[in-house]
UniProtKB/TrEMBL annotation:
The keyword Hydrolase does not apply. Gene3D superfamilies: Phosphoenolpyruvate-binding domains. SUPFAM superfamilies: Phosphoenolpyruvate/pyruvate domain. It comes from Nocardioides aestuarii. PROSITE patterns: PTERIN_BINDING. This is Isocitrate lyase/phosphoenolpyruvate mutase family protein.
Amino acid sequence: MTTATRATDLLALHTAPDLLTVVNVWDAISATVVADVPGTRALATASHSIAATLGYEDGENIPVDEMVQMCRRIVDAVDLPVSADLEGGYGDAPETVRRAIGVGVVGANIEDQMKPLAEAAAQVEAVMAAAAAEGVPDFVLNARTDAFVRAGDREPAEVLADAVERSRAYLDAGAPVVFVPGRLDERQVTTLVDALGPQRLTVIAVPGSLPLRRLEELGVARVSYGPNSQRVALTALAELVEDVHDGGGLPASMRVLN
């Protein structure tokens, strides 16, 4: 299957009325485990988790070469479309996306980092143009706005209006979907879906998020889990160590997955 075909498949998963869930991965073995679970239709990486795996702090501290190389390992480990979390693009979002496509990535999160709106929208347009130039016009750019995660002490209504304005601008610039991370309540999700249309909004699952079934009913395209999937795995590891220190052993629920 070609990269362009995988991108088309991934785009179709976003535009379908049933909610796409992606439990984020961070290396080849986590990708293999998630991909092998029945019902998994696509994978997405988590930049925070990849950076942590390689000993870097989050926030574009990892060299882009190392991020792209890990994406290559993940793509090569599975037979599913893979979307990559590429933070803000590491100084050159179109070039970073071009390099990601070169290793088989067919979608990406790119943060706006609350740049001036015209600049952020121009970046979206440039990324989609770069993907088309690489022969992948259906590249699933999940254009992220940080309106909620960088809200500070702004009024919630102002933050929501900002998220709507930015999201609509990114769709107008060619992004097929937009990503609005944060703990969104039903009113906020409904406002965003009404403004953008069904199957155009993607969100992240955090403690206290709306149930998956309700997100699907509201017309959300996709929900991802960011670094939380790695946190769940590391919690299990820490609990094993605690049990061993207390004289216990391996849990009866352990699976042999590799």
